[in-house]
Amino acid sequence: MIKKIKSNRGIIFTFEAVIVAFIFLTIFFLGYSIYSHNLLTGIEEKKDTEKFHKALLLKDLFLKKYEFPGNYSEDYIQNFTDELNLKEKTFDPINNFTNDSDRFIFIIYPNKYDNILNNYVNLSNITFNFSGIIFKIYSNVSNVNNISINLSNIKIYDWVVFFKENVYIPKITGITYNSNVVYLYGCEGDHIYFKIQNYKTNNINISNVSAKLLNYTGSSEVIFSINGYIYNKSLNSSFKNINEIIPNIISGINKIEILYSPVPVEFKIKTTNVTKFYYLTLSPRNITIMVNPND
Protein backbone atom coordinates (compact mmCIF):
# COMPACT_ATOMS: atom_id res chain seq x y z
CA MET A 1 0.00 0.00 0.00
CA ILE A 2 1.39 3.42 -0.98
CA LYS A 3 1.22 5.97 1.78
CA LYS A 4 0.61 9.56 0.80
CA ILE A 5 1.35 12.89 2.38
CA LYS A 6 -0.82 15.87 1.53
CA SER A 7 0.49 19.41 1.89
CA ASN A 8 -1.60 22.49 2.80
CA ARG A 9 -1.55 23.46 -0.89
CA GLY A 10 -3.02 20.19 -1.95
CA ILE A 11 0.19 18.67 -3.32
CA ILE A 12 0.39 14.97 -2.62
CA PHE A 13 3.75 13.21 -1.91
CA THR A 14 4.39 9.55 -1.37
CA PHE A 15 6.72 8.38 1.37
CA GLU A 16 8.68 6.52 -1.28
CA ALA A 17 9.27 9.74 -3.22
CA VAL A 18 10.48 11.51 -0.08
CA ILE A 19 12.85 8.66 0.69
CA VAL A 20 14.19 8.66 -2.87
CA ALA A 21 14.70 12.43 -2.74
CA PHE A 22 16.46 12.15 0.62
CA ILE A 23 18.74 9.42 -0.71
CA PHE A 24 19.49 11.51 -3.81
CA LEU A 25 20.37 14.57 -1.72
CA THR A 26 22.51 12.47 0.59
CA ILE A 27 24.44 11.01 -2.33
CA PHE A 28 24.80 14.46 -3.88
CA PHE A 29 26.17 16.09 -0.73
CA LEU A 30 28.45 13.12 -0.02
CA GLY A 31 29.85 13.26 -3.55
CA TYR A 32 30.24 17.01 -3.35
CA SER A 33 32.05 16.73 -0.02
CA ILE A 34 34.44 14.11 -1.40
CA TYR A 35 35.07 16.20 -4.52
CA SER A 36 35.68 19.34 -2.46
CA HIS A 37 38.02 17.48 -0.11
CA ASN A 38 40.01 16.00 -2.98
CA LEU A 39 40.17 19.37 -4.72
CA LEU A 40 41.43 21.16 -1.61
CA THR A 41 43.87 18.33 -0.86
CA GLY A 42 45.20 18.54 -4.41
CA ILE A 43 45.63 22.29 -4.12
CA GLU A 44 47.48 21.93 -0.82
CA GLU A 45 49.69 19.16 -2.20
CA LYS A 46 50.47 21.34 -5.21
CA LYS A 47 51.42 24.19 -2.88
CA ASP A 48 53.62 21.87 -0.80
CA THR A 49 55.31 20.53 -3.93
CA GLU A 50 55.93 24.04 -5.23
CA LYS A 51 57.30 25.08 -1.84
CA PHE A 52 59.61 22.06 -1.73
CA HIS A 53 60.91 22.76 -5.25
CA LYS A 54 61.45 26.39 -4.32
CA ALA A 55 63.36 25.32 -1.21
CA LEU A 56 65.57 23.04 -3.33
CA LEU A 57 66.38 25.92 -5.65
CA LEU A 58 67.12 28.23 -2.71
CA LYS A 59 69.36 25.62 -1.11
CA ASP A 60 71.43 25.29 -4.28
CA LEU A 61 71.49 29.07 -4.65
CA PHE A 62 72.79 29.62 -1.12
CA LEU A 63 75.41 26.87 -1.44
CA LYS A 64 76.69 28.54 -4.60
CA LYS A 65 76.52 32.01 -3.10
CA TYR A 66 78.47 31.03 0.02
CA GLU A 67 81.06 28.69 -1.45
CA PHE A 68 84.80 29.15 -0.82
CA PRO A 69 86.37 31.69 -0.74
CA GLY A 70 84.40 33.89 1.62
CA ASN A 71 85.67 36.99 3.38
CA TYR A 72 89.47 36.88 3.47
CA SER A 73 92.31 39.36 3.16
CA GLU A 74 93.07 40.85 -0.24
CA ASP A 75 96.55 39.29 -0.22
CA TYR A 76 95.11 35.81 0.40
CA ILE A 77 92.48 36.17 -2.32
CA GLN A 78 94.63 37.74 -5.03
CA ASN A 79 97.82 35.75 -4.54
CA PHE A 80 96.41 32.37 -3.57
CA THR A 81 92.70 31.55 -3.84
CA ASP A 82 92.35 33.18 -7.27
CA GLU A 83 94.92 30.67 -8.51
CA LEU A 84 93.11 27.66 -7.10
CA ASN A 85 91.12 25.50 -9.46
CA LEU A 86 89.01 23.67 -6.92
CA LYS A 87 86.97 20.69 -8.00
CA GLU A 88 85.47 20.13 -4.56
CA LYS A 89 81.96 21.26 -3.63
CA THR A 90 82.64 23.80 -0.90
CA PHE A 91 80.76 25.82 1.69
CA ASP A 92 82.49 28.67 3.55
CA PRO A 93 81.17 29.79 6.97
CA ILE A 94 83.51 32.81 6.70
CA ASN A 95 80.84 34.84 4.94
CA ASN A 96 78.38 37.60 5.75
CA PHE A 97 74.99 35.91 5.99
CA THR A 98 73.10 38.99 7.23
CA ASN A 99 71.01 39.46 4.10
CA ASP A 100 69.80 35.84 4.18
CA SER A 101 69.62 35.20 7.92
CA ASP A 102 65.81 34.88 7.85
CA ARG A 103 65.87 32.36 4.99
CA PHE A 104 69.04 30.33 5.46
CA ILE A 105 70.61 28.61 8.46
CA PHE A 106 73.38 26.02 8.53
CA ILE A 107 74.84 23.61 11.07
CA ILE A 108 78.36 22.20 10.67
CA TYR A 109 79.14 19.06 12.64
CA PRO A 110 82.55 18.46 14.24
CA ASN A 111 84.43 15.22 13.71
CA LYS A 112 86.64 13.08 15.92
CA TYR A 113 89.84 14.91 14.88
CA ASP A 114 88.78 18.45 15.78
CA ASN A 115 89.74 18.38 19.45
CA ILE A 116 93.23 17.17 18.55
CA LEU A 117 93.82 20.07 16.16
CA ASN A 118 92.81 22.55 18.87
CA ASN A 119 96.08 21.82 20.68
CA TYR A 120 98.41 22.21 17.69
CA VAL A 121 97.23 24.74 15.09
CA ASN A 122 98.87 28.06 15.99
CA LEU A 123 96.27 30.33 14.40
CA SER A 124 93.33 32.34 15.67
CA ASN A 125 90.31 30.10 16.05
CA ILE A 126 86.77 31.04 15.15
CA THR A 127 84.09 29.16 17.07
CA PHE A 128 80.62 28.39 15.71
CA ASN A 129 78.13 27.48 18.42
CA PHE A 130 74.93 25.89 17.10
CA SER A 131 73.01 25.60 20.39
CA GLY A 132 75.76 23.47 21.93
CA ILE A 133 77.13 21.92 18.73
CA ILE A 134 80.65 23.41 18.63
CA PHE A 135 82.68 23.70 15.44
CA LYS A 136 86.01 25.53 15.11
CA ILE A 137 88.05 26.75 12.18
CA TYR A 138 91.49 28.38 12.17
CA SER A 139 92.62 31.44 10.25
CA ASN A 140 94.92 34.47 10.29
CA VAL A 141 93.49 35.88 7.06
CA SER A 142 89.92 36.57 8.19
CA ASN A 143 88.39 39.10 10.58
CA VAL A 144 85.21 37.14 11.28
CA ASN A 145 84.40 36.83 14.98
CA ASN A 146 82.89 33.90 16.85
CA ILE A 147 79.35 33.10 15.71
CA SER A 148 76.52 31.74 17.86
CA ILE A 149 73.23 30.54 16.36
CA ASN A 150 70.37 29.78 18.77
CA LEU A 151 68.45 26.99 17.06
CA SER A 152 65.71 27.03 19.71
CA ASN A 153 64.44 30.34 18.31
CA ILE A 154 63.71 28.80 14.92
CA LYS A 155 60.09 28.00 14.09
CA ILE A 156 60.79 24.64 12.53
CA TYR A 157 57.34 24.32 10.95
CA ASP A 158 58.20 27.29 8.71
CA TRP A 159 61.32 25.61 7.35
CA VAL A 160 62.21 22.84 4.93
CA VAL A 161 65.22 20.91 6.28
CA PHE A 162 67.92 19.24 4.19
CA PHE A 163 70.03 16.81 6.18
CA LYS A 164 73.66 15.93 5.57
CA GLU A 165 74.70 17.94 2.56
CA ASN A 166 78.26 16.77 1.86
CA VAL A 167 80.66 19.67 1.31
CA TYR A 168 84.26 20.70 1.98
CA ILE A 169 84.76 23.33 4.68
CA PRO A 170 87.87 25.56 4.84
CA LYS A 171 89.11 24.23 8.18
CA ILE A 172 92.49 26.04 8.08
CA THR A 173 93.28 29.20 6.10
CA GLY A 174 96.43 31.21 6.52
CA ILE A 175 99.64 32.91 5.47
CA THR A 176 103.03 32.46 7.12
CA TYR A 177 105.12 35.61 6.63
CA ASN A 178 108.92 36.04 6.49
CA SER A 179 109.77 32.52 7.54
CA ASN A 180 111.68 29.55 6.21
CA VAL A 181 109.29 26.99 7.69
CA VAL A 182 105.57 26.28 7.36
CA TYR A 183 103.39 23.77 9.19
CA LEU A 184 100.49 22.15 7.36
CA TYR A 185 97.76 20.04 8.99
CA GLY A 186 95.34 17.51 7.61
CA CYS A 187 93.17 14.60 8.68
CA GLU A 188 91.96 11.59 6.74
CA GLY A 189 89.94 12.83 3.77
CA ASP A 190 91.31 16.39 3.94
CA HIS A 191 92.77 18.24 0.98
CA ILE A 192 95.69 20.58 1.74
CA TYR A 193 96.62 23.29 -0.75
CA PHE A 194 99.78 25.38 -0.39
CA LYS A 195 101.98 27.77 -2.31
CA ILE A 196 105.56 28.84 -1.62
CA GLN A 197 106.16 32.37 -2.83
CA ASN A 198 109.16 32.71 -5.20
CA TYR A 199 109.81 28.97 -5.02
CA LYS A 200 112.76 28.00 -7.25
CA THR A 201 113.58 31.68 -7.73
CA ASN A 202 115.47 34.20 -5.55
CA ASN A 203 117.35 31.27 -3.98
CA ILE A 204 114.11 29.91 -2.49
CA ASN A 205 114.31 26.12 -2.51
CA ILE A 206 113.15 23.37 -0.16
CA SER A 207 115.79 22.06 2.21
CA ASN A 208 113.69 19.53 4.11
CA VAL A 209 110.20 18.05 4.36
CA SER A 210 109.08 15.99 7.33
CA ALA A 211 105.84 14.72 8.85
CA LYS A 212 104.48 13.29 12.07
CA LEU A 213 101.29 12.05 13.72
CA LEU A 214 99.53 14.18 16.33
CA ASN A 215 98.49 12.79 19.70
CA TYR A 216 99.34 9.21 18.76
CA THR A 217 101.18 6.43 20.59
CA GLY A 218 103.32 4.13 18.47
CA SER A 219 103.59 4.24 14.70
CA SER A 220 101.09 3.83 11.91
CA GLU A 221 100.91 3.64 8.15
CA VAL A 222 99.88 6.90 6.50
CA ILE A 223 98.87 7.11 2.85
CA PHE A 224 98.85 10.49 1.16
CA SER A 225 99.38 11.98 -2.27
CA ILE A 226 101.06 15.16 -3.44
CA ASN A 227 100.13 16.52 -6.82
CA GLY A 228 98.86 13.06 -7.78
CA TYR A 229 101.91 11.04 -6.62
CA ILE A 230 100.96 8.55 -3.88
CA TYR A 231 103.18 7.78 -0.88
CA ASN A 232 102.88 5.21 1.88
CA LYS A 233 104.84 6.09 5.01
CA SER A 234 105.15 4.76 8.53
CA LEU A 235 104.91 7.74 10.89
CA ASN A 236 104.87 8.28 14.64
CA SER A 237 104.74 11.27 16.99
CA SER A 238 108.23 12.50 15.98
CA PHE A 239 109.05 14.26 12.71
CA LYS A 240 110.30 11.87 10.03
CA ASN A 241 112.03 13.04 6.85
CA ILE A 242 110.04 12.52 3.67
CA ASN A 243 112.39 14.42 1.34
CA GLU A 244 111.60 12.06 -1.54
CA ILE A 245 108.45 14.12 -2.18
CA ILE A 246 110.44 17.32 -2.88
CA PRO A 247 110.78 16.70 -6.66
CA ASN A 248 106.99 16.65 -6.91
CA ILE A 249 106.51 20.06 -5.25
CA ILE A 250 106.00 22.74 -7.88
CA SER A 251 106.35 26.51 -7.92
CA GLY A 252 102.59 27.13 -8.14
CA ILE A 253 99.69 25.56 -6.25
CA ASN A 254 100.41 22.21 -4.60
CA LYS A 255 97.85 19.72 -3.33
CA ILE A 256 98.21 17.08 -0.62
CA GLU A 257 95.42 14.55 -0.09
CA ILE A 258 95.33 12.50 3.11
CA LEU A 259 94.06 9.13 1.92
CA TYR A 260 94.52 7.27 5.20
CA SER A 261 95.67 8.25 8.68
CA PRO A 262 94.42 7.27 12.16
CA VAL A 263 94.92 10.84 13.48
CA PRO A 264 95.79 14.29 12.07
CA VAL A 265 99.12 14.61 10.25
CA GLU A 266 101.48 17.58 10.64
CA PHE A 267 103.76 18.38 7.69
CA LYS A 268 106.80 20.65 8.11
CA ILE A 269 108.34 22.24 5.03
CA LYS A 270 111.62 24.15 5.37
CA THR A 271 113.09 26.41 2.72
CA THR A 272 116.63 27.66 2.18
CA ASN A 273 115.61 31.29 2.73
CA VAL A 274 112.72 33.15 4.30
CA THR A 275 109.65 33.59 2.15
CA LYS A 276 105.86 33.66 2.35
CA PHE A 277 103.65 30.56 2.49
CA TYR A 278 99.95 30.41 1.61
CA TYR A 279 97.88 27.43 2.69
CA LEU A 280 94.38 25.98 2.94
CA THR A 281 93.00 22.78 4.44
CA LEU A 282 89.61 21.70 3.11
CA SER A 283 87.81 19.24 5.37
CA PRO A 284 84.86 17.09 4.18
CA ARG A 285 81.85 17.54 6.46
CA ASN A 286 78.18 16.79 6.74
CA ILE A 287 76.16 19.94 7.22
CA THR A 288 72.48 20.57 7.81
CA ILE A 289 70.94 23.35 5.79
CA MET A 290 67.60 24.88 6.74
CA VAL A 291 65.85 26.96 4.09
CA ASN A 292 62.72 29.09 4.54
CA PRO A 293 60.88 29.11 1.18
CA ASN A 294 58.08 31.33 2.46
CA ASP A 295 57.86 34.79 0.91
Sequence-ordered SSE layout with sheet pairings:
Layout: E1 4-6, E2 12-14, H1 15-65, H2 74-79, E3 104-108, H3 114-117, E4 125-130, E5 133-139, E6 147-149, E7 160-186, E8 191-196, E9 206-213, E10 220-226, E11 229-235, E12 240-241, E13 254-260, E14 265-291
Parallel strand pairs: 4-6, 5-7
Antiparallel strand pairs: 1-2, 3-14, 4-5, 7-14, 8-13, 8-14, 9-12, 9-14, 10-11, 10-13
Give a verbal description of the structure:
- 21% of the residues lie in helices and 40% in strands.
- It contains three helices and 14 strands.
- Strands 3, 4, 5, 6, 7, 8, 9, 10, 11, 12, 13 and 14 form a twelve-stranded mixed β-sheet that branches. Strands 1-2 form a two-stranded antiparallel sheet.
- Strand 4 and strand 5 (133-139) form a beta hairpin.
- The protein is elongated, with a radius of gyration of 32 Å.
- The protein starts with a strand and ends with a strand.
